[in-house]
Structures are given as C-alpha cells and as structure tokens.
Specification:
CATH class: Alpha Beta
CATH architecture: Alpha-Beta Complex
Number of domains: 1
Subunit structure: Monomer.
Order of helices and strands: HHEEEEEHEHEEEHEEEEEEEE
Oligomer: single chain
Distance between the termini: 30 Å
Shape: globular
Number of helices: 5
Structural class: alpha+beta
CATH superfamily: Creatinase/methionine aminopeptidase superfamily
Helix content: 25-40%
Catalytic activity: Release of N-terminal amino acids, preferentially methionine, from peptides and arylamides
Cofactor: Co(2+); Zn(2+); Mn(2+); Fe(2+)
Number of strands: 17
Strand content: 25-35%
Family: Belongs to the peptidase M24A family. Methionine aminopeptidase type 1 subfamily.
InterPro entries: Creatinase/aminopeptidase-like, Pept_M24, Pept_M24_MAP, Pept_M24A_MAP1
C-alpha cells in the first residue's frame, strides 16, 4: 500500500466526521452478515456492498483505488488479503474475510471481519479466534502516547500462544481524509514502531493477518492484488479503525450484530 505523508491529529469536529464514516461502514458489514450463507458468490457480496453504499449516498473507497476493480475485498481460506470478488461460491467449511472501506462526506471508515461459513474445521476456527483475540489484545495494550510497537508486541504474543504466524508485509495505517496515511501500524515490533507514539487525535487501523503455517506470502501475478499464504495454509484477519483519545483508544467501527470483545467462535 502507498501511504500519504499526512499524520493528522483530529480535533473534535473532525473526530465526529470519522465516527460517522466508521459507523456507516459497520452498518454495511452488518448488512452483509445478514445475507451471508453457503452458495453465495463473492461477486454477490461485492454487489451488495456497492449498491448499499451508493443507495445511502456514500462511496466505496476500494473501487478504483490504485486500480482495484471492486468495491470490497473478499479473501477466502488461504487468501490473506486483497481478494478480488468474482464467481467463486462460498462453500460449507470456508472462512472468508470481508474488508470494507466507505467514504462518508470525505472521511474514511475501514474494517474487516473473518466469517465462518457453516461448520468449519477446528483449524479454521482457531486461526479465526487467534486473529480476533490478537486484535483486541492490541487494542487493550493502547494508551495515550504509547509506542506503536505495543500493538505488534501484543499481536505476536497471542499468535505464539496459538502457534500461528503473523504476516509482516501488510500493515495497518493512519486513516482520515486519505485512505492510507501515516503512521504505519506493523503487527510485529519494528525499530521504527518503537520510536513512534500514538498521540491523542491520531486515527489508525489495526488489522492482524494470522497464518496457520508460515508467515510468508505470495502475490498473484495474474491479477496483481490477491495475496495468499506461500504454503497454502489458512489465514484470518480482523480489523478495526481506532481513534486515540485523551482517555485512551476508541473503537470507531463496532458493529451492532458482530462479535464483541471476548467472543468465542
């Protein structure tokens, strides 16, 4: 992903704009949740997202972004991220990450969730649980002006408990009027993340990608977007947009019907 140089500390009116964008984005995800079942194609999911977003007067941020051809990302099984919706029909036992970003009055809301399709394997359930738990462990580690590396430390600790791996090539990011901006939010500790701090007013995503096998990835040369696990094992991801406030982190993309902190899959 390409990051802009903007590292905006939002003031209260701007924070409310972000809250509105993220609230709508969560609403879109709940709409998808209510329709998801075996036999649905990933193209249908994209059509739901596209139509619902436009019908409410907003814009799907993914469509056309750096040439991406669809309005959301649908990443099934061994696809880590950036899966392009198409004719594939979801099958009993699949896991699928649906990644949505909406532009509401010029501001971006961004989140993703991994869904279990029917009865899934223990391995599929565990990798989904690991990513979900890692996301919330990272949020719990946050406090005003903390180092960004606290996020990566928390995520790696959870992955080790499950004996899974953390993808390193793809990271969280600052968010606001731009889709991707500073700061970069790696999901493992880096020298840079140990130096950078999250001051009140900074808005960003945390989106740990967890693999059952090794952390290595491979990019589909055919479409230039789809990222898979190199060893073909399952991968899961959850993402929230977070606003750092003077009192601590505020999750802006909570859904009304989705899993909340502590959920067991």
């Amino acid at each position: 992903m390409h990051f802009g140089t903007q590292k905006l500390k939002l003031k209260e009116p701007q924070r409310d704009r972000m809250r509105a964008a993220c609230s709508f984005n969560a609403q879109v995800l709940d709409m998808v949740r209510s329709r998801l079942q075996p036999g649905v194609t990933t193209e249908e999911i994209d059509n739901w997202v596209h139509t619902y977003t436009l019908d409410h007067g907003h814009t799907p941020a993914c469509l056309g972004y750096l040439g991406f051809p669809k309005s959301c990302c649908t990443s099934v099984n061994d696809v880590i991220c950036h899966g392009i919706p198409g004719p594939y029909r979801l099958q009993e036992g699949d896991i699928v990450n649906i990644d949505l970003t909406s532009i509401v009055d010029g501001w971006h809301g961004d989140q993703s969730e991994t869904f279990l399709i029917g009865e899934v394997s223990d391995e599929a359930r565990q990798v989904t649980q690991c990513s979900f738990d890692a996301l919330y462990a990272a949020i719990d580690a946050l406090q005003p002006n903390c180092r960004i590396s606290e996020i990566g430390k928390a995520i790696v600790a959870v992955a080790r408990q499950f004996k899974f791996s953390v993808v390193q090539e793809y990271v969280g990011h600052g968010l606001g009027r731009q889709f991707h901006q500073e700061p970069s939010i790696p999901h493992y500790p880096t020298p840079e993340s140990r130096l950078q701090r999250l001051a009140p007013g900074i808005c960003f995503t945390i989106e740990p990608m967890i693999n059952v096998g090794g952390r290595n990835t491979t990019l589909d040369r055919g479409d230039g977007w789809t990222v898979r696990t190199k060893d073909g094992t399952l991968s899961a991801q959850f993402e929230h947009t977070i606003l750092m406030t003077e009192d601590g982190p505020e999750i802006l993309t909570l859904t009304a019907d989705g899993p909340q902190k502590g959920h067991q899959f």
